[in-house]
Amino acid sequence: MEEAKAHNGCGAGDASAAGAAGARPPATPEGVALAYGSLVLMALLPIFFGALRSVSCAKGKNASDMPETITSRDAARFPIVASCTLLGLYLFFKIFSQEYINLLLSMYFFVLGILALSHTISPVMNKFFPVNFPNKQYQLLFTQGSGESKEEIVNYEFDTKDLVCLAMSSIVGVWYLLRKHWIANNLFGLAFSLNGVELLHLNNVSTGCILLGGLFVYDVFWVFGTNVMVTVAKSFEAPIKLVFPQDLLEKGLEADNFAMLGLGDIVIPGIFIALLLRFDISLKRNTHTYFYTSFMAYILGLGLTIFIMHIFKHAQPALLYLVPACIGFPLLVALVKGEVAEMFSYESSAEILPHTPRLTHFPSVSGSPSSLADSMQQTLSCSHRRRQQNPSAM
Fold this sequence. Notes:
By secondary structure, this protein is mainly α. The protein is built from 14 helices and 9 strands. Helices cover 58% and strands 11% of the residues. Strands 1-8-7 form a 3-stranded antiparallel beta sheet. Strands 2-9 form a two-stranded antiparallel ribbon. A two-stranded parallel ribbon has the order 3-6.
């Protein structure tokens, strides 16, 4: 989380830090409370609903229909890959023109944001279509080779309802591309966060501890040890953060004194919280003890981040407070209930869950702004796959 002054909502977002930046008129106490209260609420929404939707993600008959599963090996490599990417972006912004780099990023996230937002609103929009709506099925298929050696390159399945959702999302995309308004930024940011929590599945609790522990060290080092994280965040113009103006009461929708929270601080703890919800359901007790414990722990950690930031007036790595809270409290509950062994033996990838339409191949993310961009690299060709492959379309 970070405070910064930015024009039209396109200012820097730190994907894993909270702090103050730049000289600006002091915000009123009411404005500060409204901004941070709104950020906390916006962070909770994709975690809560993304976790619920992660339960509905099915194992498809084809490997390509499965959610992206993060293994312990992937988790161990995340901090290293994220650090290299972050440092590379830092050098990139130092060498090349920031204006042209962010122009390319805007176009890139314009496309990804439309796809992510369309997938997010699709379940809600489907309820508003009339029963007799002429819903035609389409498939965009690219293959390589022929006969038994034929291999799928792109298999994009959609219907008329999907096209309507894409059209509505495109309106937001054009708004963001032209104005970089903070509301359009937040709509894309919420969509990215919800998709990440829904579609990135940790295979077990041990992997979650490795991932969060590694990114805990990564976050602390790059925020407290160097100025790389903050510099990249201030230069990176993309919807990889949630923002809310502290001067909204004074300037309305044209406010530009923003508090912000990076998507990494939502997605990374969020996928661990979603794992605990699936663990709760696997116990078949009709209770969600571990989910609600970790969810409340996230609120506590985020609140502590904001409090420490204002006490010390210095950038704070949010995962420094979120990771111990999200891991420690559920483990304490498991220890009290005598279920530590059962928790660590649970394998999420072994479940067979009910089917729901979803994006597929949503790659892994880490806590930095740059890694969030890299994490969505493959969605241009394989997102919005909602049904099992139709053999007749081959």
